Structure formats: structure tokens, C-alpha cells
Amino acid sequence: MIRAPRVTIRPAAMRAAVDTVEAAYPAEGCGLLLGHVRADLIEVAEAVASINVAPDPQRNFEIDPALRLRLQRRSREDGAAPVIGLYHGHPDMAASPSAADLAGAWEAGLIWVIFRVEDGQMIEARCWQLAADGSCFIECLLRVGEGRPAAYGPPRPVEP
């Protein structure tokens, strides 16, 4: 059985990410997640919006590499929480990784929070982690603060 991490996202970070993906609709809004990883427990402390630099932001997303470098430098120099993942919206699509998401995944272990957005409103949030071998995503249990899980079902690999 695959053991997926449990992910808790602070309410303010969730609100920031949701605001980003809703405002970007019908394009894919995106950003980076900052926080801490302790064994199979992951806490997202902050969500930082990125410009979507993909050539076709209506169908794909690409995080601004300058933002990632800036946040990594801040973490090194100031001790701020490091980048532990990313988020993006799926306009009028499931909150599951697409084939394009898997093809564009660059770093095993990062968590991906994917939002299903319909008519400019977030409908569902689910969390995934890229497997160590990069072959698939594993669903994680996502909680907002100390609340109930944001999506239900056992962790499972997803191969688009």
C-alpha cells in the first residue's frame, strides 16, 4: 500500500490560493506553497501567487521561475518557510492531475494542490504528491486548518 502524507493548509493560505485561481478563471491561476515537511506530515503556511507564464494559460500553467528563486533565497537568508509545493486551478476540469501536469512535473516530493474552478468559483480542492520515481501522483489527505478533509477517498496513484 502506498503511504501518502497528510497535508494541512492554514486557512489564510487556502484563502490566498483560492482567490488566485478564482480571479484567473477561465485561465489557470497558479502559485507556490511554503511550509514545513515532517516525515509524513506536511503543513502549508503560505500560498504565494505567481504570474502564469505558460504560452497558453487557458490550457496550461507555468510558475514564474524568478518567483521560485526569490522565495528560495528568502528561505536561505531569512529562515522563511521553504517551497514545498505548488497550486493551480483547473478551469471546468477535475481537481486531479492531467497528463500535461505529469509531463510538466519537475520535482518528486512536491505537493500539488489542484482546484476545480467552474464559472469563476472554486468547487473542489485536492492534494497530490509526485511519486519519487516521477511516474504518477499520489493523492494526499488535505485538511484546512484543523477542519475536515477537503477531499475524500483513500490515497491512490493517478496515472493520466
What is the fold's blueprint, element by element?
Layout: E1 6-9, H1 11-24, E2 30-38, E3 41-50, H2 65-78, E4 83-91, H3 99-104, E5 111-118, E6 121-130, E7 137-144, E8 157-158
Parallel strand pairs: 1-3, 1-7, 4-5
Antiparallel strand pairs: 2-3, 2-4, 5-6, 6-7, 7-8
Keywords: Hydrolase, Metal-binding, Metalloprotease, Protease, Zinc
Domain JAB1/MPN/MOV34 metalloenzyme: 6-133
GO molecular function: metalloexopeptidase activity; zinc ion binding
Describe the structure.
With 160 residues, the chain is α/β, with parallel strands linked by helices. The protein has a single domain (6-158), classed as 3-Layer(aba) Sandwich (Cytidine Deaminase, domain 2), CATH 3.40.140. It is 21% helix and 38% strand. It has three helices and eight strands; from the N terminus they run E-H-E-E-H-E-H-E-E-E-E. Strands 1-3-2-4-5-6-7 form a seven-stranded mixed barrel. Strand 4 (83-91), helix 3 (99-104) and strand 5 form a beta-alpha-beta unit. The radius of gyration is 14 Å and the shape is globular. The protein starts with 5 loop residues before the first strand and ends with a strand. Mean pLDDT is 89; it is low at 152-156.
Quote the beta fraction: 35-45%
| H/E element order | EHEEHEHEEEE
Shape: globular
Kindly give the count of domains. Answer: 1
Report the strand count.
8
Q: Span between N and C termini?
A: 20 Å
Q: Count of helices? A: 3
Radius of gyration: 14 Å
Main beta sheet strand tally, sense and closure: 7 strands, mixed, barrel
Mean pLDDT figure: 89
Structural class: alpha/beta
Indicate the CATH class. Answer: Alpha Beta
Enter the CATH topology name: Cytidine Deaminase, domain 2
Spatially, the strands of the biggest sheet line up as 1-3-2-4-5-6-7
